[in-house]
Amino acid sequence: MLWIGTSFKMTKTRAQAAEYAARLRTEVGRDGVPGVQPFVIPSATSIAEVAAVLGGDSPVLVGAQNAHWEDAGAWTGEISVPQAADAGARIVEIGHSERREHFGETDATVALKVRTILRHGLIPLLCCGESADVFARGDSVEHVLGQVAEALDGLADTSRVLIAYEPVWAIGEHGRQPRPDEIADVIAALSAKWGDRVAAVLYGGSVDQSNAGTLLRVPGVDGLFVGRAAWDVDGFLSILATARAVVGG
Ligand code: PEP
Q1: pLDDT given for residue 249 in this prediction
Q2: What is catalyzed by this enzyme (predicted)?
Q3: Active site residue 49
Q4: Measuring CA to CA, which of 134, 155, 176, 178 is 20 to 30 A from 208?
């Protein structure tokens, strides 16, 4: 099974997100994409809209881009895991590098969040990845394994967890597409240490239609987490079609 997902980040109105979801519902259908688990992670304002348009039995999972570790309380501006679930989210993304850089997300808060997400029966999408400096020093494997260990060590059951390896130097408009050999060591290390204990190890960062097939064939990659290239629904559908072809051999 390959996991193919996108985060809309801070884009799309509710109407735009609903339009995207409606196209997805039509194109993916009720039966889904054989061998592929698609997911979409809209802004918090659109989670309920997207979940409603896709429908309760949709083969496309819906997620939230962040949630607090507490179930409720005086945390202005935050949403909780139960609130995200109530809106229709089945996945909660945590530890994205933009949240680590701009909003004070740390390995410690990620560890708290992963426990809350699992306690509520949802799927944590744990993002990890090294900066350009760490990459240049050749310390990527140690750094990323450390991030994941901080989040998951001590948990009895991590079988629902998705790990998304997203090198910071590859993410977003200032990122660059990686060569397969530049991500192979970290993916191999994650796969060796966590592959049997988590649901999937995904790659993310400057994925698009041109490199999706190549990246999906890197040994240990169980899926892709896509930003910009999937904000247009046709881009997402095209990457889903590539994944289907890869699964089909
Ligand atoms: C991301 O930020 O998680 C991401 C994958 O972005 P992009 O695909 O746009 O590089």
Answers
A1: 82
A2: D-glyceraldehyde 3-phosphate = dihydroxyacetone phosphate
A3: no
A4: 134
Which of 49, 68, 93, 96 is the catalytic position?
A: 96
Query: pTM, whole model, 2 decimals?
Result: 0.98
Is the Cβ–Cβ distance between 9 and 65 less than 8 Å? yes
- Which residues make Cβ contacts (< 8 Å) with residue 21, sequence separation at least 6? 40, 49, 50, 53, 54, 60
Substitution site in 226, 232, 239 for ligand 1 pocket (most atoms within 8 Å of beta carbon):
226
pLDDT (0 to 100) of residue 196: 98
- Say if residues 92 and 66 touch (Cβ distance below 8 Å): yes
96: annotated active-site residue = yes
Q: What is the pLDDT of residue 95?
A: 98
Q: Around Cβ 139, how many Cβ atoms within 10 Å?
A: 14
| Average pLDDT, rounded, for the chain | 98
Q: Give the distance (Å) from ligand 1 centre to CA of residue 11.
A: 13
The number of the ligand 1 atom at minimal distance from the alpha carbon of 230 is 8
Fold (CATH) for 2-248:
TIM Barrel (3.20.20)
- Judged against a pLDDT cut of 90, whether residue 110 lies above it is answered with yes
User: CB of 226 closer than 6 A to ligand 1?
Assistant: yes
Ligand 1 contacts CB of residue 225 (under 6 A): yes
228 lines ligand 1 (CB under 6 A): yes
Q: State the Cα–Cα distance between residues 166 and 127, nearest whole angstrom.
A: 7
Angle among Cα 182, 187, 192 to the nearest 5 degrees reads 140
- Structure confidence at residue 19 as a pLDDT band (50, 70, 90): very high
Taking only the tens place, the pLDDT of each residue in 87-104 is 999 999 999 999 999 999
What does the domain layout of the chain look like in residue ranges? 2-248
